[in-house]
Amino acid sequence: MEERRLLFLCLLFAVTWTSSAGLATMSVDLSNEFIKIAIVKPGVPMEIVLNTESQRKTPLALAFRNGERFFGEAAWSTCGRAPKSCFVYFLDLLGKNTSHELVQLYHQRFPQYDLVDDPVSKRVVYKLDDGTQYAPEELLAMVLRYSKLLAEKYAENLISDAVITVPPFFTQNERLAVSYAAKLAGLNLLQLLNDNTAAAVNYGVFRRKEMSNTTQYIMLYDMGASSTTATVVGYHMTKLKDTDGKAFESAQLVVKGTGFDRTLGGLEIDLRLREHFIKKFGEQSKKDAWKNPQALVKLLKEATRVKRILSANTETNAQVESLMDDVDFKTKITRAELESMCADVFERVGKVVEQAVSAADMSLGEIPNVIVVGGGTRIPKVQDELMTAVKRTELGKSLNSDEAVALGAVYQAAHLSKGFRVQPLDIIDGTVFPIIVEFERGASSNTETEVPSEATSKIVKRVLFGRSNGYPQRKVLTFPKHSADFSFDVKYGDLDFLPAIEHSYAASGLRFTVSLQGVSEAFAKHTDKRPKGVKAHFRVDSSGIFELDHAEATFEHEKEEEVPSTIEKISQSITNFFSGSLTNTSDDNATQAEAPSQEINAATGLEGKENVTENSTESAGKVFTVTKVNKTVTVKEKLKDSTMRLDLADYPDKDRLESRKRLNAMDDKDREKQEKEKARNTIESYVFHVQNIIYESKYEKASTENERESILKVFREASEWLEEESGIQAADVYKKKMKTLEDAMKDLQDRVTESERRPRVLEDLKKHLNTSRAFLQLASNNSLGLYTEAEIDVLHKLINETEAWQEASVKQQNAAALTAAPVFRVADIVEKIRALDREVKYLLNKAKFAKPKPKPESKKKDTKKDAGKKRETVIENVTEGASSPDAEPDLEQEYTIPLDEKMSQENLHVDDTVTGDQADSETSTDSTTNSTEQPETETTDQERVTHSAADL
């Protein structure tokens, strides 16, 4: 609770919305074992979403069984019975084919799956026994849709925007796969945010006051289910510019370096334990559990449970009933045994730290704090190894290990969403893998020389984005020697800084060829101009996705232009300043714009700023002095580019439409299932409810024994029908059954409900009759002529008839048996109250709108001598808030009506509240009145009754 309170204060959400409907956004912490969902909406700064089991995290599991689809815990529970159609840990398969080392490792770990390559997309898919195939991207899209439904139910709002977290080591193919899955799920992907960066955001939003111009560094160490990362992050205050170019101060988060191990995590320890259990089971029963998929799933679940227990205890028992062929398994395991069988795993803990420090080009002494995140860091041996690696005696645990990533991501989602304004925290993330371009050297011109180091090679390599380059960022690669159509390859660069196994995992994550067409035509079109080369514009966006933005051929030529004199320039600047030619288009959520593109010369590899040509508007006004000069003009011809992936095919639109249609059909089936279950549960609840209340006192008094037995018979038959039915029936079947039950109970329930409500409503009628008769007595003293005689008679007659009906009906109802149908219903009483209310309101409003009698003119002119005399008082109708008696009254005005029977007919008043202006006016006028000349009679509070249209 304290964390939420601080978080609320830190966020300082200033929600700007025109309608709160649909205003909510979400984040999904996408890890290989669990997903965590967070939302933000008006009134709820940041909150973790609870799933259907009221848990704060949901297993990343999806299963199909008997034509039904299951998610989360429900999916895991089916894995033991149908392991081939229960999919877990499938993030490792995104954007890969069966030849990838990680896919082969996945198949070794989970041999129950049949993995094949799709002939069109060349991507790995699951193949079931019935021939059905599911791509990992489709499975992820289903999980994201399920997450969206959970978030919408929790937020009570529709949600479309989302930030999804991914590991920082995800390659381009993997990031594109997640982006594709988000589109299939119907989500508007605001950003793919690295999970280590999301945790850093969550750390930084609480510590803005501690930031200064001096960078403060921390290391975040995150061990999850299947991977481990270490990240060096710096925080400081900096000056940024909004879209108008105005400077503002903002906190900034910079990722300096990242180290990782894709296979170091809790899953690896679980698998070591499973192998140990398989060996022990073989020794006990002489059976090979490797050949039984159900046994493998059961042992993996037990290994996960044992690992968690050994994190807090030194020993425990592992046991699985009927593991294989009705043979039970049980063995004792100690923490020392676990650490021994995972010794090589724990040795890899410190190597991730070394990678991060090396990537940041820093030393451990420059990093004062090491913060741990992720469930794997709870293992005692992991903590020991990590403290040794970072040379600390204590680790920082100020972040929520399970929820820091989801909460940091949803803060970024609120920042990117248009409906919220948050304290800015600018993020500069860093590329993990360098990106290079390879191309064949173009023909040399007479004025250009070859690079000596590349003289013997036709292939030229140029680094576009180096390791730990900040992004989002743009870069331009210039090809100065190419005058015809050509192509180049884009791939990851030198990965020697990675271990050999990690090198093989990442090498194929980015491989495609770009072909540029139209180069020859552009050069032929501009033969009269100087060629300046072909420029290819690249970018890495905020999601870490690399792309070719566009390509163009550039030329220069000289053009004679008229340049205004210095005096005219000054005059024009003053004119523009006062004419307001600069418009303000600031955005509340504006962040720092991407830095100007850096230009790389393909021939030399040298970097520099890209030449930017600014457009100038025509000067308004008279030109006084003109000078003609030659100006260099740049001409750009846009080129056509096409991209072809070398290992995987792009996601075709046809496949996307088919996948979305397939997912929609599954969603419709799930909704139908939910409607059936809801209808069935409604019947079960109603049967249980009636069987419990039928013999309560109020139901016994309102029914006979025969009637109760008849009702119970119907409900017992319904209960037996529910128990004997095979499978879930159609929703209409349950609705018809429910109608039968409601009809059986209808008369009894009606009598009980009427008898419970009747006394209270009769009391309300009595109060309305008293109030109406009091008003009638006052209205009858009609000295002001407000009402006609017919209007008074109508109200008088209505009161008498209502009183007579009440007396007769109550008498008949009291004489009737409780088991008989009601003589009159509550609805009849309510209608009588409404009739009285309508009539009294009509008369009240007539008095409210009546114009006051004109004030009689004084026969004598007022003199200073008569100024102190008491002025004549007249009855005025003054509406609340009005400045004059003729102003239109407020229908919700309260009226104070004197009820003193001894008051004369002239004392009938309808007093209204006097506005402040009127009160001041009367006070200043009456200030000269003698205090002894006050009204002779006053009406006490006890003699006044306040009538309000709302009360009546």
From TrEMBL:
PROSITE patterns assigned to the protein according to its UniProt record, in alphabetical order: HSP70_3
InterPro entries from the UniProt entry:
ATPase_NBD, Heat_shock_70_CS, HSP70_C_sf, HSP70_peptide-bd_sf, Hsp_70_fam
Q: What keywords sit in the KW lines?
A: ATP-binding, Chaperone, Coiled coil, Endoplasmic reticulum, Nucleotide-binding, Signal
Cite a single GO MF annotation. ATP-dependent protein folding chaperone
Cell compartments where the protein resides: Endoplasmic reticulum lumen
Superkingdom of origin: Eukaryota
Q: Where is the signal peptide?
A: 1-22
Look up the record and report any one GO term of the cellular component aspect.
Answer: endoplasmic reticulum lumen
Segments forming a coiled coil? 731-758
Q: Does the keyword Endoplasmic reticulum apply?
A: yes
A single Gene Ontology biological process assigned to it is: endoplasmic reticulum unfolded protein response
- Name the residue ranges with Basic and acidic residues bias: 854-874, 899-912
Report whether Signal shows up as a keyword of the record: yes
Where this protein primarily resides, as one coarse class?
A: endoplasmic reticulum
- Location of the region described as Disordered in the Swiss-Prot/TrEMBL record: 659-678, 850-952
Q: Enumerate composition-biased segments (Low complexity).
A: 921-934
Q: Which family does it belong to?
A: Belongs to the heat shock protein 70 family.
Q: Which PANTHER family match?
A: HSC70CB, ISOFORM G-RELATED (PTHR45639), HYPOXIA UP-REGULATED PROTEIN 1 (PTHR45639:SF3)
State the protein's name.
Answer: Hypoxia up-regulated protein 1
Q: Which organism is it from?
A: Ramazzottius varieornatus (Water bear)
Q: Coding gene?
A: RvY_05471-1
